[in-house]
Write a structure and sequence with these properties.
The protein is mainly α and about 80 residues long. It contains three helices and no strands.
């Protein structure tokens, strides 16, 4: 990886740590993101990235790596 790619991985990783940026995870950067999460001791994020990478999941574009808990809908 060149310096630009390393910086892009770092930028995506920082977003993921904030619960953002899941749409920026790609086949090209997922392995580097997993390594980065492992280095940082971010085991949940690393596991979520491995799940994203798993071939048994359908539609990568529909997946969220880190998403906030869903809010119950208020009854009207």
């Amino acid at each position: 990886m060149n310096d630009i790619q390393l910086q892009e991985v770092e930028d995506v990783y920082r977003l993921l740590c904030k619960g953002l940026g899941h749409e920026k995870v790609t086949d090209d950067n997922v392995n580097a993101l997993i390594r980065r999460a492992d280095q940082d001791g971010h085991t949940i994020l690393a596991t979520e990235l491995r799940e994203w990478q798993a071939p048994c999941s359908a539609g990568r574009s529909d997946r969220n790596i880190v998403s906030p808990p869903s809010q119950p809908q208020a009854r009207r």
